[in-house]
Specification:
42% helix, alpha/beta, 210 residues, globular, two-stranded antiparallel sheet, binds flavin mononucleotide
């Protein structure tokens, strides 16, 4: 049995284009494997608070010194980390809003980057502590950015996940969604095609082993 954590960052929850693409992938991933478990973390329905000095201080305090309020903050962050740690596969539905990642996703990232829990600093530099996972990112954008310096999301998300030790990250893009119906349909069709080919690739090792 494998566990997949589906993080959706669309303002529109299940109705966002990035959420739809992620869902299509998750359905293909689960197809024929009813034991596989899917956990959905919807950052619009259940937003993570912004990181504040008080919240960060709660992370830094020793567990025996934490006030009840600090304990609640640290436990909340620990819960998010445990959920991620227990996942074999991580799927992110990633809209672009105002030239960057949704602030809800940034707030989530700010609560899972914890020294000693998800990364540590060694003599050789930072080391991610969440190794051995595969991540898929489904990026939806109104305009066209992929492969250009104006794509602020791809390097950022890849770097952040890599910092935590999640280095195997694959992106699927649906771009030009605000550039007319024809372009939108073509982009969604191409993304669907990419999703199906990833799903087929996943099934190949199973077929070979049979
Ligand atoms: C508040 C807001 C800001 C947006 N900003 C951008 C932007 O900077 N660049 C872009 O290409 N598209 C932008 N868009 C379009 C979205 O990227 C597009 O609608 C995409 O489908 C969003 O993903 P979602 O449907 O999963 O929410 C914006 C949309 C909204 C609602």
């Amino acid at each position: 049995m494998k566990t997949l954590l589906q993080i959706q960052a669309s303002l529109f929850s299940d109705h966002g284009q990035s959420s739809r693409l992620a869902r299509e992938f998750v359905a293909a991933w689960r197809d024929g494997k009813p034991d596989n478990r899917v956990i959905v973390r919807d950052l619009a329905a259940d937003p993570v608070p912004h990181l504040t000095a008080e919240r960060f201080q709660a992370f830094l305090a020793k567990s025996e010194d934490r006030t009840p309020e600090q304990r609640a903050v640290a436990d909340y962050s620990q819960g998010l980390i445990d959920e991620l740690r227990n996942a074999d596969v991580v799927v992110i539905g990633l809209p672009m809003y105002n030239f960057g990642v949704p602030s809800t996703l940034k707030a989530y990232f700010d609560h899972i980057a914890r020294a000693g829990l998800t990364f540590s600093y060694t003599a050789n530099g930072p080391e991610g502590l969440l190794k051995g996972k595969k991540a898929y990112v489904f990026a939806a954008r109104g305009g066209l950015y992929a492969g250009t310096p104006r794509d602020t999301e791809t390097a950022y998300v890849r770097d952040f996940l890599g910092f935590l030790g999640i280095e195997d990250v694959e992106f699927v893009y649906a771009e030009g969604l605000a550039m007319g119906d024809e372009r939108k349909s073509a982009a969604l069709e191409a993304a669907g095609h990419a999703i199906r080919s990833i799903a087929e690739r996943q099934l190949e090792p199973l077929a070979a082993a049979a």
